[in-house]
Amino acid sequence: MVPGMDDSAWLSPLVQQQLGEVQREWPCIRVMQPILWHYEDAAHPQQATNWSGFRDLLDLIQNQADLLNLGRDGEATGRAVAMSELHATTLPGLPFELWSKVLSFTADWELAAALGINTSLPEPTEWNVRVEDLSDPLLIYSHELERTVLTCNTAAICRKLSQAPDDFQILPVLVVKLITRFALVKVLTYLENNHPQLFKAFDGAFLPTKASAYYPQVKVLDYWKNSPHFQNRHVYDTEAIDGACKNGHVHILQWWKQSGLPLLYTKVSLEQASGNGLISVLEWWRDAAALDHNIVLKTGRSLLWAATNGQADVLRWWHASGIQMGYSGGVAFTASRWGHVHVLETWRKLQGDDNVLFDAEEVIFIATARQHVEVLEWWRQFARGMLDGMNGRGVKVKFRTRRIQEAVESAPKSQEWWFRYRLSIGKDQDWWPSFLAL
User: Fold this and answer.
1) Which superkingdom is the protein from (predicted)?
2) Do 70 and 177 touch, CB atoms closer than 8 A?
C-alpha cells in the first residue's frame, strides 16, 4: 500500500517494474492498489480520491481465513485418493450401481462427483451455486473453474486456468482444496510455472500442513519437498505431524520420518492419537523411538485423553508398552467425570485393586453432579469388593459429604441413587453425616 500516489504515478512503467521486482523477491507480499488521487477536470480543479481495492482487500482476508481453516472444520477425511490414477472410467470390479451405493454410504459428495458416479447424496451448500444467478464475470469464471477442477482432468483444468481474466488474482478455496485433496500435482506444477500470483495460495506452510493433517497425500508432500519453488524454504510447523496423528495418517508419519526434514511435533500427537483410539499411531511412535534416539515420546496427558473418550484399549496398550507415563493418578477421576464405567473397570484390572489412585471426595462428587449413576454404583461395588475378582475384599472409599449434598440438590437421578443407598444402610432420606464411606 503506497500512500500519496496519483493515478498516473501508479500506472507508470517504473512503478509497475519496481512492484514486479518486489513480488519476485518476496512472493509472500501481495501488491494491492492504494488510495489514489486525481484532479476532476480543468473546470473543477479539485483533488479527488478513489480506492477500488477495498473489495479486493476484503476478498483477500476472507480467502486467507478460509484457507487457514480448510480441513479443521471436521469435513476432511482420511480417504487419500490420487485422482490422476483413479477415475470413474477405470473403477475396478463393481458395476456403477454398486459403486453408487458404496459412495452414498461414505457421504462424500465430492469424491463421488470427481469419480463421475451418480449418488443420492445432496449437493453441499458450497457447490450449490447456479451460474445463471451470477452477474460478476469473475464469479462466473470462478464457478466454472471449480466445476472443471472437480473433474480432475489435468488438461482441462490447465486449459481453463490459461483462460483466467487478467484481474483474477485469488484462487477459490474450493479449487485449492480439490487440488490438494486429490493430489493434482501436475496442476500445481502448471500454476507454479505459469501463474505465480495464483500459486501463492499454496505458499508458506499450507501444503505440508493440509497434505499431512487433513488431506493425506504423499504425492503432494513429495512435490512440496522437491519443487524448485520451495527449495531452501520448507516452511512448516507442528500442526502437520500433530494433525496426522490426530487423524490416524500413519503413512504420512512415515513420510516425514524418511524425508530428512526435522520432525516438529508436540505432546498433542500422542494425546490426540490416544483420545481417538488410534493404536496404529501409538505403535508407530513406539517403534520409531526405539530405532532413533532423537525421537522423544511426548506422552503428555495421553492417559487422561484416553479416559475422557472411553478408550479402554488405549489404556491397555499404554500399560503393556512399559513406557513411563504421567497423570495416571487422574484416570479414575476423568473416567468418573465422563461416565465411563468400562474405563474404570479396565484401569482397576490393569493397576490392581489396591493401586488405583483416586480422591474419594472428588470422584463421588463429580459422578453425583453429572448424574452418572452407573459410576456411583461402580464405586459402591468397588468399596464393597463386589467387582469381578475382588472376592469381597473392598477398598476404602471415604469422603466428606458437604459437597455431595450440594451436588445432589440439583441432580434428580443422583438423588434417587443416594436415597436408595441411604435406605440400604438403614438411614432415612435426610440423614447426612460429616463423613461417609461407601
Assistant:
1) Eukaryota
2) yes
Is residue 397 in a domain? yes
Q: Domain span at residue 435?
A: 327-438
Q: Comparing C-alpha atoms, which of 143, 139, 171 is closest to residue 70?
A: 171
Helix H segments across 151-238? 154-162, 173-181, 185-194, 196-199, 206-209, 218-226
Position 70 in a domain: no
Q: Is residue 152 part of a domain?
A: no
Whether residue 41 lies inside any domain: the answer is yes
List pLDDT tens digits, range 256-306. Answer: 999 999 999 999 999 999 999 999 999 999 999 999 999 999 999 999 999
Selected residue with higher pLDDT from 33 and 142: 142
The total number of structural domains in the chain stands at 2
Cβ neighbours for 229, distance < 8 A, ≥ 6 positions apart: 192, 199
The contacts found for 402-406 with CB under 8 angstroms, 24 or more apart, are: 402/434, 403/361, 403/365, 404/361, 404/364, 404/365, 404/368, 404/432, 404/436, 405/432
Residue with cell 520420518: 257
Residue range 45-56: mean pLDDT, rounded: 67
Under 8 Å between Cβ of 228 and 199: no
